[in-house]
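2024-03-11 09:14:02 INFO receiving multi-entity request
2024-03-11 09:14:02 INFO entity count = two
2024-03-11 09:14:03 INFO echoing inputs for audit
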Amino acid sequence: MQRLPKIVRILAVISFTAVVVLFAALIVNSFQNSGKPLTSLAPEGPSAESIQQLVIPVTAIAGVIFVLVIGAIIFITWKFRERQDSNPDEFPSQIHGKTTLEIGWTILPALILAGVAVGTVLTIINLNREEPNAIKVQVAGQQWWWEYKYDLNGDGNFDGPEDITTATELVIPAGKPVQVTTTSNDVIHSFWIPGLNGKKDAVPGLYNPLKLQADEPGVFRGQCTEFCGLSHANMRMLVRAVSSSDYDAWVRNQLKDHAADPTNPAAAEGKKVWLSLCAQCHVIKGINDAKMKETPPPLVAGVAPDLTHFMTRGTFAGSIFNLYQPVSSDGQPLPMSDVAAAGDPGAVLTGGPVNTATVNRVTLEAWLRNAPALKPMYPQGGRGMPNLNLTEEQIDQLVAFLETLN
Amino acid sequence: MALTEDRPLALPSGDSDDGYTPTGVFRRPTAETGPRSWFTTVDHKKIGIMYGAAAIFFFIIGGVEALLIRMQLWSPRGTLLSANLYNQVYTMHGTTMVFLVVMPIGAAFANYLIPLQIGARDVAFPRINAFSFWAFLAGGVFLNSSWFLGGGADGGWFMYAPNSGVIFSPTNGIDFWNLGLIITGIASLTGAVNLIVTVLNMRAPGMTLMRMPIFTWMALVSQFLLLFAIPVLTSAQVLLMLDRLFDANFFNVAKGANPLLWEHLFWIFGHPEVYLMILPAFGLVSEILPTFARKPIFGYPFIVFSGIAIGFMGWGVWAHHMFVSGIGPISVTAFSLTTMFIAVPTGVKILNWTATMWGGKLNFSAPMLFSIGLVTMFTIGGLSGVMHSVAPMDTQQTDTYFIVAHFHYVLFGGAFFGFMAGFYFYWPKAFGYMLNESIGKANFWLMLLGFNLTFAPMHVLGLQGMSRRIYTYDAGYGFEFWNKVATIGAFTLAISIAMFIFNIFYSKSKAKNLPPVGPDPWDSRTIEWMTPSPTPAYNFDPIPTVTRVDDFWYRKYGETKDGKLVRIASTAEVAQQRTDGKGIHLPSPSYWPIVLAFGLPIVAYGLIFSLWLALIGGIVVLAAIYGWVMEPPDDPDAAHDDHGSEAHASDGGDATVPVSADVVKEVETVG
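2024-03-11 09:21:47 INFO inference complete, emitting structure
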């Protein structure tokens, strides 16, 4: 056997070592899930926890098999390598097979898998068990944001006067089960809050069930996971789990229509701008909801985000931008950190007044100035928000008006 | 064959046919070298080589697309590609790699090796074979021409409805995707029929099914999968074509369509597709591991039957791609269980390969290294596959980078490593010179490193929430570090591919000063290694009679009762000498396969841009079919012997075996 050039041997050693180090680093890293808001490995609700109880043993079994097989191959390639000084006319003993061994390693994996199968079936049953007292929410995906409709009175209708329609952020009470039904108004999307449960596709014409429950109050990020066209990457969502009392207060506020005309003159002007331009697609209950039922928006999905209580959300534009800046303990805005830290509406969530100093005006104005520049959309085809060519004055007025929508 | 029962075929060859020249019937081309010989060839070896060359060409395109993806994802909010362009690039990357790289490389090996491994002179339908290749090439070029005609398809390689509809994708990209893949589908289908018939009917005397080399077995299973899977995809694509081009409503939800129809059809094709892509590579390593372990494959029947089992079970698992699509808990449970248990035959293969190496005398040549690479890397892909067969786990993992990692471990770490092993192993057989071993080994180690750097981090990225098919991600999600590692890995991988291409040219230039490579440079086992390298057009002279598995090996070596091997003949004694091939009747080249194949994209352009053009394309197709059908079976002037070749085609003891003569006749009459 001819010796390899030294450089090839060095490359082999580097490559082998690097791969081993890489695998070790990845295994260690998969245990480090803090600061990773979309991780599926840190469950914070019962559904996600029951999946995790399957993930751990199955991954462990896979890991053991991996180590055994790869270890065996490395051992074999070392032990049975052709030696430098071996006699080329000497051959290893010729074994063609061994039926008992073959049958053994056909049956053994089948038995291991049968064990995994039992756990799998039990978990599927558990995940699909209905919660009789769950809050019922219909989640509809459309390019490229999510709409949430709450059936508060439990009549099976999500559009009644006692029901809530909102967008972008799903507000739920912590510790209580929420029965979500996913559907879509255009293409297939997928609703995924990794901290709370696995994902479920939102398919137009279908109504798919998904249970969500958060153990503790908190913010749980999500990302659309079925490719849905141009801005699939920018179609995110957020679940805001709050205390039961906050949830009740939030519901009471959401049920209110838009109040009387704004007193601030800029906001009053902004309302006029809103009526002439935005009201074609967006709804504010108490202003144009009746008209909108007669002339639906000129959009493929037939709907744009409901803005009635816009300021109660911490994020906007498919949950990719923060509506609020981080604030210090005395209410002063702090510099924007990374966008993964979700904006916090604070007391506005339950209808409190908006502290305009904390609003993320820079991004909100940029959005109004030219929305498709911030998030790729296809307004010419009725999919997404167009550039409305607003003047700076109109933008200021609109922001002032939007700030009244608590 | 049956189509040409009319006069021309009845002629004893060599007779002239002055009185009979129907309109538009041309003499058959005769060039044996030069570019024209390649355009008109029906030689399975030349066609195999062209499949490989075209696939590597498309691999470079798909690879550049992959590098664009990785550069875009190098950092949060990448700006190299727009959302629109990224969606096109990732769609075309997936489509190219599946349909224009992995499938045709499998076809390249199947075309080149199957006739050689079963001891035939060519495939059953040589002109159809040429047509399959040209139609594949035409479809691939057509598909990629979309880049210059308004942009590539942007719906993902899975092209889910209704996002693939005109409303959501108004450019022509998806039409190119759809029609291009219908054309390559025709190519795959005709190729599958051809190779199945070849394997079942044209084996050398004594080559029973259970004596066939494992590559041929795996390629056969893979062709059966193609035969049944491609029509499902084509049907779905015809529906989509009618929707997009003729305002039909198969996938129009507003008119009551259920978008899951497309998902079911696509994955009924799509999952067998995965197995038909991997099985040829499994076949290759099943040839290579025993060669370099110096002992026979462990459990030949188990390897064969596990391959067949994968082929059957592969049909019952498709909905595991749809666990979260809303098919209901009963379906989810059923497909979860079937998917789990398909791991059993796959595991059997891994363990048999490992057992083949056990106790061997392992020579770590480049093909052997790549084969071991397949066994290890595929094990990782297989295990992650079992992990998401567990449906509740899959609801967290599907459509994340975990899946991207999984199938790249299967298709790159599995199929492509196997193909690399096959390239290094069969290069001397096909081209008559060895690829440089040192560069080959460096190639392996660099590819192993680049591959793992690229795809291993994607497991963790996916589990920690990075969604697939996103053109951008934000800072603060913890995705930055591993994305950088993956991008570095992708470029390492690109360098290793460049190293392979460099090796081809470098080794060729060095080969001039080296002694010619013999028929059997690796001391191999199966009968293709009996032929001189590069294999002559006639393959075997004479056709060997096969008496057992690894027939060629046992012409060189005998085995004592206690499993000891003794050499009984030198390679030179049992390998075949290059002859002038006189008296061996081979199918004649033909113009018509390439004409027919290139009529198809004209029809397709016509469907997109103007139905008049489709009419012209249709005329080309019809004219080509007419020319094909009426083509005389042979060039009357070609100098070939009469059918005395039958005796010639079989060595002494074989003359009594009638199959041998049939094989010769078969090739002749097919034309």
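2024-03-11 09:21:48 INFO post-check: Residues 299 and 383 of chain A are 6 Å apart (CA to CA).
2024-03-11 09:21:48 INFO post-check: The longest strand of chain A covers residues 135-142.
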